[in-house]
Design a protein that fits this description.
single chain, 2 domains, 27% helix
Length: 218
């Protein structure tokens, strides 16, 4: 835990909202839990650190799902919302069918809808990205190095040497993975340092343009 290259401290800049941070409804999860039969009524809820953060009531009909919930914008007044989500069905290769949501905005078939606004829509209509898409190249390389290190039972910090071969792993495989981890870690570190240096230079240039105490703009 912790240590050089063990965190995401190379990440910076403006970010889009991520799909991972939103309330979502996954039709595959509902199917698995037998919640898609017409006439079914149920409640879906979300929590974080043991505290409920939201809930919706659902009613399943033959070709759609009706949602009932409350929504408020930026701490304003609560408003009751009713939303209808159409279903689409596609045939499976071995018989039967698969059920999808139709995004109420773009009408594309999707498995997951996100409550990132007043209505549940697909990821693209809410302009959401996955958390991994927010990672810059340096962070992706360091994550790659750490993933290999976990496979080798080595320390997660890219500054630590990889010394011991896991039991039953061929020496050739160990050497190849160790070199991959070193290359990815070193490249990620150098790219991150260069990016951080550019950012600090940019901040310094901006600060240099700010009048100090006792100075005034012409």
């Amino acid at each position: 835990m912790g240590g050089l290259g063990s965190g995401g401290w190379f990440r910076y800049g403006s970010k889009k909202s991520t799909a991972n941070s939103q309330h979502d409804i996954d039709i595959r999860w509902m199917k698995k839990n037998d919640m898609l039969r017409p006439g079914t009524t149920c409640s879906l809820s979300w929590s974080r650190r043991g505290k409920e953060t939201g809930s919706v009531s659902c009613r399943i009909e033959e070709n759609q799902m009706a949602l009932h919930y409350r929504h408020r914008l930026h701490g304003g007044e609560w408003e009751q919302v009713e939303q209808t989500i159409p279903f689409a069905r596609t045939s499976c290769n071995y018989g039967g069918h698969r059920t999808w949501f139709l995004c109420p905005h773009c009408m594309k078939r999707v498995a997951i809808l996100y409550g990132a606004g007043k209505y549940f829509l697909c990821r693209h209509c809410h302009d959401l990205v996955y958390a991994s898409q927010q990672e810059d190249r340096s962070y992706r390389l360091i994550r790659k190095a750490q993933k290999i290190r976990r496979r080798l039972n080595a320390p997660g910090s890219i500054a630590e040497p990889i010394l011991f071969k896991p039991k039953h792993m061929h020496q050739k495989t160990f050497d190849r993975l160790k070199n991959e981890a070193y290359r990815a870690g070193d490249e990620g570190w150098m790219i991150g340092i260069a990016a951080l240096d550019r950012r600090l230079n940019h901040v310094g240039e901006r600060l240099g343009a700010i009048p100090r105490s006792g100075q005034f703009l012409a």
